[in-house]
Design goal:
Elements (H helix, E strand, L loop, with lengths): L4 E5 L3 H13 L3 E6 L2 H11 L3 E5 L8 H12 L3 E5 L4 H9 L4 E4 L4 H34 L3 E6 L4 E4 L1 H7 L3 H4 L4 H4 L2 E3 L9 H8 L3 E2 L4 E4 L5 E12 L5 E10 L1 H56 L5 H29 L6 E4 L1 H11 L1 H6 L3 E6 L6 E4 H19 L8 E8 L3 E7 L28 H11 L3 E6 L5 E8 L12
Parallel strand pairs: 1-2, 1-3, 3-4, 4-5, 14-16
Antiparallel strand pairs: 6-7, 6-12, 8-10, 9-11, 10-11, 11-12, 13-15, 16-17, 17-19, 18-19
Helix pairs in contact: 2-3, 3-4, 10-11, 12-14, 14-15
The protein binds adenosine-5'-triphosphate (ATP) and magnesium ion.
Length: about 500
């Protein structure tokens, strides 16, 4: 048995001394003694006993019952009453102070010992229960979710502050009421009342996620979208003693979801606009060259016709070039659209060298106007490629235009454009070399980005279009310096093996 610190309140000094001796005999210590009820509380506070032995009948204004009540209220120390005789009324009053035991005077050591042990044990157990209840209430009160507990009749037994504020019912008013009255939920769209969740939980006997799309109809008329789930409370005998509901306000989450959906829609729209913007820019860019060529050729044609002796042959050739460039303009629109749609409908087997010759013929006037000297070295080893003719022509046109444009500023050396092709069984390689200003090493990647330009009139679309086209054809394009001046733009395309493409069906 453990030793306890005990306070004795007994107005008969002889009896008090006797009890003190008994207590010490069984191993307890006496921390204080008084015969006056009015001193009991003060003494209990100052000596901090673990138990008080209290004579019920004390002389003076504060009797044992009153003193016990004061101690119970302010000290949480168990009180055991000592009594020789008490009338019914006193016993009734005493029982209201929730005493931890009675001892009938005179008593034996063994009775004293048993009653003290029982009182200390009961008090310890009650304290543990109180602590765990406090922990439980503190936890439920401080969590962010709303919690309502019911008994097995689905009547409210507990609500935490979040549940109080969401339902609009204070716990004090809600306790004892049917759950459905306090926690009134309906289907968000149909407005039909949803089955009493506590009843459902108790019927199913397991943890349940409750209906989706439920709104809580609060006492003050607010409608709050909620997410909820519940679990049965099972007692020691395995019987369902009630239910616990946990729910939360999902208004914020709803709003966030809606905002997300809205921004996704905006993004799709913006992406479409960007694609459209690039499409428009690409078409404008690609149409520029054939239009310029039409004008140049038409002017050339007029010049051949306007002389004293018109050269009809040259005039006809220039007019033919104007017509071909006109057709090309139409083809370009179709091919840019195909490129943006990533369609491969225009794919045919093409001879790269033939295409280079054809394009140089179409661009002849332009090249000549810029006083550029052209040379070519087109090797016969070049295999055919499987490609969209107009698109590959666009690549050639854009690269040749860039080369011509960069050389238009060159005045102190020849303006030399050299176009070469070579190939092996797998790839075709085309190089367009110029003697222009060259490309800064740090910019050799950047120049392929859409809208990157260093020219006052440039759109910055030419190389970005080239790269899109070549990547769509599983080819590559890159820039490197030329010696002693200028740059070389190279691109490759896969050779169409055995005269057919593995992509022909895509
Ligand atoms: N052969 C070249 N020599 C030097 N710089 C070049 C050459 N080719 C391209 N560049 C650089 O790359 C930039 C981008 O070229 P790109 O063809 O994409 O656009 P751009 O020629 O400026 O305008 P546009 O859209 O009218 O073609 C050019 O502004 C230029 O600075
Ligand atoms: Mg360009």
């Amino acid at each position: 048995m453990r030793s306890a610190r005990i306070l004795i309140v007994e107005d008969n000094l002889i009896v008090a001394r006797d009890i003190e001796r008994q207590l010490m005999g069984i191993g307890h210590s006496v921390v204080g003694m008084t015969g006056r009820g009015e001193d009991a509380l003060r003494l209990a506070l100052s000596t901090q006993p673990e138990l008080v032995l209290m004579d019920i009948r004390l002389e003076g204004p504060v009797d044992g019952v009153d003193a016990a009540e004061q101690i119970r209220r302010y000290c949480h120390v168990p009180v055991v009453f000592l009594t020789a005789y008490a009338d019914d009324e006193t016993v009734r009053r005493a029982s209201l102070t929730e005493p931890f035991g009675y001892l009938l005077k005179p008593f034996e050591d063994i009775q004293l010992r048993t009653v003290i042990e029982m009182a200390l044990y009961k008090h310890g157990a009650e304290r543990k229960l109180r602590d765990s209840e406090r922990r439980f209430v503190t936890t439920l009160s401080s969590i962010g979710d709303a919690v309502i507990a019911t008994d097995n009749q689905a009547r409210v037994t507990f609500m935490n502050p979040v549940a109080e504020s969401l339902t609009g019912w204070p716990q004090s008013e809600a306790v004892g009421r049917p759950l459905t009255e306090v926690f009134h939920i309906a289907h968000e769209e149909t407005r039909k009342t949803v089955e009493d969740p506590a009843a459902k939980i108790m019927r199913l006997g397991t943890v349940v996620g409750l209906a989706n799309h439920t709104v809580l109809l609060a006492r003050d008329g607010r409608e709050i979208p909620i997410d909820d789930c519940g679990a049965p409370i099972i007692d020691d005998q395995g019987a369902t003693a009630g239910a616990v509901l946990v729910f939360r306000d999902i208004t914020q989450r709803r709003r966030a979801e809606e905002a997300l959906r809205a921004s996704q829609a905006t993004l799709v729209h913006a992406t479409r606009l960007t694609t459209m913007g690039e499409l428009v820019a690409s078409i404008a860019h690609e149409l520029n060259q054939p239009l310029m060529a039409i004008v140049t050729n038409a002017e050339t044609c007029l010049q051949w016709l306007s002389g004293a002796k018109p050269d009809l042959d040259e005039a006809r050739k220039a007019a033919e070039r104007a017509v071909r460039n006109g057709h090309r303009a139409g083809d370009v629109i179709r091919s840019v659209r195909a490129l943006v749609r990533k369609s491969s409908s225009g794919m045919t087997l093409l001879d790269m060298n033939g295409m280079i010759v054809e394009i140089l013929d179409l661009m002849r006037a332009e090249i000549r106007r810029h006083e550029v000297v052209l040379s070519t070295e087109l090797l016969p080893s070049v295999e055919p490629v499987w490609a969209d003719r107009v698109q590959i022509e666009q690549v050639l046109v854009n690269l040749i235009m860039n080369a011509v444009e960069t050389m238009s500023l060159v005045v102190d050396r020849p303006r030399a454009l050299h176009i070469s092709s070579e190939g092996d069984a797998d790839n075709v390689l085309v190089a367009i070399a110029d003697s222009g200003s060259g490309i800064e090493l740090s910019k050799t990647d950047q120049i392929f980005e859409a809208f990157f330009t260093t020219k006052p009139e440039g759109m910055g679309m030419g190389l970005s279009i080239c790269r899109s086209i070549l990547e769509a054809h599983r080819g590559h394009i890159w820039a490197s310096p030329n010696r002693p001046h200028g740059s070389i733009m190279r691109f490759t395309l896969p050779a169409a093996k055995n005269g057919a493409s593995d992509e022909s069906s895509s």
